[in-house]
Amino acid sequence: MSITAYFTLDGTLSGSGGPPGSIESQENAHIGSQFTVLSNNDLFAQWARTEAEMSYSWLNGGGAFSVLVYNVDSADLVVLAGNPFDIYYGIDALAGWAYGGSGGTADFGATGRINFALPDGTWISSDGGFFQTTVAPIPEPSTLLLLGSGLIWLAGIKKKI
Known about the structure:
three-stranded antiparallel β-sheet; 2 helices; about 40% strand; alpha+beta
């Protein structure tokens, strides 16, 4: 059976910055994630400021920064129904920079989400309590009204015959 696993992460990398040549001008923040499913290994990493921006900030001072991060990792899987499979996800949030800085903030508080695209009639559960199933769409009220009107019309025609 073919399924697709998704892990979504969103948050903010930020810092206050400071005057030229100061530790505060070197503030930076980093988020890294790793999504491993069976043999797939997707890596994502992002710094709030690039190395060029850090060099500029060191020489000229750097103001506050705030960078939104949104990442979706996915993996297509072929699994045997009824057999367990493993999924791992790791998040690494760091503040600072290799040659200085220590005040950045990586804020991803409880934003990680995992979900699956499943064939109709299938479900997934986990030892940790996660449960997902395909859900039959619920008809909209207008659809139900149209269906009901059609049935009443058919009943009226049947009475005339």
